[in-house]
Amino acid sequence: MQKQKLKYVSYAIVCEEVPDEISLAINISGCPYKCKGCHSKYLWEYTGNYISDDLDKLIDKYNSLITCVCFMGGDQNLNELLNLCKIVKKRGYKVCIYSGSCNISKFSIFYDNVCIDYIKIGSYIESRGGLNNKNTNQKMYKVIYGDTLKQLENITYRFLKHDYNTDRIVEEMSCLPLKSIETVKKELLNE
Ligand code: SF4
Fold first, then answer.
1. Whose CA is nearest to atom 5 of ligand 1?
2. What angle do CA 55, 79, 183 make, to 5 degrees?
3. Helix (H) or strand (E) holding 55
4. 3-state secondary structure of 12
5. Which pLDDT value is given to residue 68?
6. What angle separates helix 51-62 from helix 78-90, to the nearest 10 degrees?
7. Which residue has the CA at smallest separation from atom 1 of ligand 1?
8. pLDDT digits over 29-71, tens only?
9. 15, 23 in Cβ contact below 8 A?
10. Which of 13, 96, 138, 177 could form a disulfide with 122 if both were Cys (CB 3.0 to 4.6 A apart)?
11. Is the CB of 100 inside a 6 Å radius of any atom of ligand 1?
12. Residue 131 C-alpha to ligand 1 middle, in angstroms?
């Protein structure tokens, strides 16, 4: 079945969604996940403009300001999302995807094409909160590309504020080795 072309309803320049990057965040509509307690219900309806029509124009508008383009959703049409990521990478920017999926395997094709730098995965669970909650189920990874090996660095701790014992958590997590994508897949399946 033909997937619906991706549409977006809004965009913003943001500094907190992707650590160390100034991102053009594009809010993609038609979210298929429908998490209970969703903080962005306006993204459930399939509405707005086609991203493929506007992506270059949006990047042109902010080209000297941004370092990254962050797609908020879009994995309901992986082929199109992949093509959009390729466009962004060709233009010299980093790429981040925020997904409500817990299945990191579905993004393998993005690593294989070297067109993703950050990936946030995990549905929103009210009782566990978002990335800035120490109990969250969600995870943010940075993709590290070696000559042949692609690895993921868990950078979720970067979202914690100082209300928790963050210094200790940061110190502990900084010592963790990078993990192969296969290892991360297994860990997520066992969660
Ligand atoms: S993935 Fe995000 S936008 Fe979609 S339902 Fe869950 S919280 Fe809402």
1. 34
2. 110
3. helix 51-62
4. strand
5. 98
6. 30
7. 100
8. 999 999 999 999 999 999 999 999 999 999 999 999 999 999 9
9. yes
10. 138
11. yes
12. 13
Closest ligand 1 atom number to CA of residue 41: 8
E strand or H helix that includes residue 150? strand 150-154
Residue whose Cα lies nearest atom 6 of ligand 1: it is 35
Q: Are 104 and 111 in contact (CB under 8 A)?
A: no
31 lines ligand 1 (CB under 6 A): yes
3-state class (DSSP) for residue 182 = helix
Q: How far is the CA of 48 from the centre of ligand 1 (A)?
A: 17
Largest CA distance in the chain: 49
pTM of this structure: 0.90
Amino acid at 67: T
Q: Which atom of ligand 1 is nearest to the CA of 32?
A: 4
DSSP lists the bridge partners of residue 179 as 152
Closest CA to 80 of 3, 179, 159: 3
Tokens of 47: 């509405």
Q: Is 133 in the pocket of ligand 1 (CB under 6 A)?
A: no
